[in-house]
Amino acid sequence: MDSKEIDIAFNEAVDRINDHTEPFPADFLLRLYAYYKKATNNYERPSSRTPIINAFKTNALFQIQGITEDEAKQTYIDLVNNYFLYRK
Description:
Layout: H1 3-19, H2 26-39, H3 51-63, H4 69-86
């Protein structure tokens, strides 16, 4: 996929997540959070009122610091596709 195709697929994956009404597992949400932030080049500090949640978010971001924006988008797309494919 080229960058334009990745952008389209990424936006579709984001829409799928935003349209889903059932709760997601916490570990899945942390991965989505980290890859979304990296994919959108958003490096604002986590803004939860709970310090432990901020620590988990910061750790998730730290773990993916070595990848590119396109790699983050592709991983986000793969996570979303796999979640909806394999969920029960």
